[in-house]
């Protein structure tokens, strides 16, 4: 963790310095350091997901729901990450569009869950015609 | 977590800036602009592997298709 913090401080210092001389290359430094930090964070997350997997296998929840959950986490992470990068580079409009697309794709991914919910409710109500 | 990619990009930035000043003073504006583009493209080519690694790990980790 200390490594990530140090890396972040060094990267932001150099990015600030280079931004005054060469704005576009300063921006690239900011982008590449956030990518490296994100990759570092994801490696940490792998162990957490493996533990979740073992817990899920005991509890008997079907794998498809867990997969949808993982997809949601991935989509929200990516969309947050890219929209912040766009905001950093001054393109707030593009960032907002990415957030909007992310929300839509989250909705699309979670449609099956709504369907199963409605089916179970239908069964419970005994489709009272 | 290697920091040298950051310092390499910074070095390219400073180098490009100095060369652009030299070209400007010797009256070659177009070469200065082309040099800026070349520096930017070189830096971007260094950055792309890191971007690819991140998206690859996100895809495998969250089983996004």
From TrEMBL, chain B:
Keyword Transmembrane: yes
Residue spans crossing the bilayer: 6-23, 32-52
Entry protein name: Stage III sporulation protein AC
Database matches in Pfam families: SpoIIIAC
Keyword check for Ubl conjugation: no
Keyword terms: Membrane, Transmembrane, Transmembrane helix
